[in-house]
Amino acid sequence: MPWRELAEPVRMQRVALVAPVAALHDVLREVADAGTVELARPAEGPAAGELETYARTAVVRGEAAALAGWTPAAEVPALAARLAGVGGAVVPTPTPRGLDPPTLLPGGGTARRSFTPLVETYGTVPYADVDPTVVAAGAYMLMFGMMFGDAGHGLLLVLAGLLVRAGRPAALSRVRGLWPFVVGSGACAVVFGLLYGEFFGPTGVVPVLWLSPLEEPLTLLAVALGVGAVLLAAAQAIGTVNRWREGGWTFALASASGVAGVALLAGLGGIVLGAATGYGLLVALGVAVMVTGVALAFLGFLAASGGGGAGVTQATVEVFDAVLRLGTNLVSFARLAAFGLTHAALGMVVWDGTTALAGAGVLGLVGAVVLFVVGNAVTFALEALVAGVQALRLEYYELFSRIFTAEGRPFRPWHVPLDAEAAAPASAPTSRSLP
Fold it and tell me: Residue 260: which of 293, 224, 221 has the closest Cα?
């Protein structure tokens, strides 16, 4: 699938389903069986009588009847061929002004489909926006791995994902499609476990390839904030594209989740980096960029408020909130280091207790084995839950809040199998005007 198709919702086409009045019910049966067209939901009628209800809502002119709906553009040829067999036709029509198409995210492969719930749980992607599913999944797994950095625990998570793929236990068969997400998160935990030198705790089974979290917490904290800055920048970039697609460059320039937000983040980064390196010119440049961002954001908020004295006050407060929120969003990523440290500390406690018991005779050795197994089981369950929730929290509050400013409408095609719809003839649709 081309990269562009992965980065945006499926292209939708507004269509008119046209048929002779006598063939309307046959056409509707084919549409219901195909399950690729969303028609306006009838305001009346039980589910069992939907076909007749849709037929009554058709626009009739003489001997012809028509209904409007949405379908994926790629489905138009197949749908037209299908309806031609019963005397119907599919006529592509322009999208009415002010009417947004429904959103259908691309299916892709198994891995792509397993990541979709991460975005859909937050909300429906607006049709005009970029679909961030792949980027969001990568960010989630990276953050999870950084907080759950233990090679042994990561391998257990990979094994759990493979068991889910196999449908075992049977109770997990309903979430079988999520196995790539579980395996990917476990693989990231393995990578960070190797970097931290953690394998069911500091057992020494694997060497420290980068740093030990408990020995260099400040370095880990600085890296966590750096990762957060990169992720925020990526979210702002996607948000800028979305604002441009939603309202053009004017809207994108003055939006806090657009160019104005990018300038605020870049200016803050320049100030921090310049202060850390003692490079005064970089600090001055950061201040200038940040002031530009503040000015753009102020103009955007002022335009949204309607202007006037009250508008100036409102815009000032909102600019202050945007700057403050940027700082708090960045600081929130410190939890990547904090929970990584917590995981390492729990692993160290279990391992220290295990080694202490192992030297106390046979009973001590038995106790050491029990403590190691139970301690790691508790640590695995607790930290997997905490890291999973915290990664989701960072994804939704810090990143998605910049990517999305509105919510779309999900594509809901009408689908009833042919043999489920009564074939008894119904009354002819009545004439009505176009909506």
Answer: 293
User: How far apart are the C-alpha atoms of 211 and 194, rounded to whole Å?
Assistant: 10
- 129 in helix, strand or coil? coil
**What digits encode the pLDDT tens for the residues 148-207?**
999 999 999 999 999 988 887 777 778 888 899 999 999 999 999 999 999 999 999 999
Report whether pLDDT(2) > 60: no
Q: Domain residues of the chain, as ranges?
A: 3-104+413-420, 110-130+216-403
Region 375-398: what's the mean pLDDT? 95
Q: Name the fold adopted by 3-104+413-420.
A: Alpha-Beta Plaits (3.30.70)
Query: What type of residue is 404?
Result: F
Phi-psi region of 389 (alpha: psi -120 to 50; beta: other; left: phi over 0): alpha
* Region label for 201, one of left (φ > 0), alpha (ψ between -120 and 50) or beta (otherwise): left
- 422 burial (CB, 10 Å; 0-12 / 13-18 / 19+) is exposed
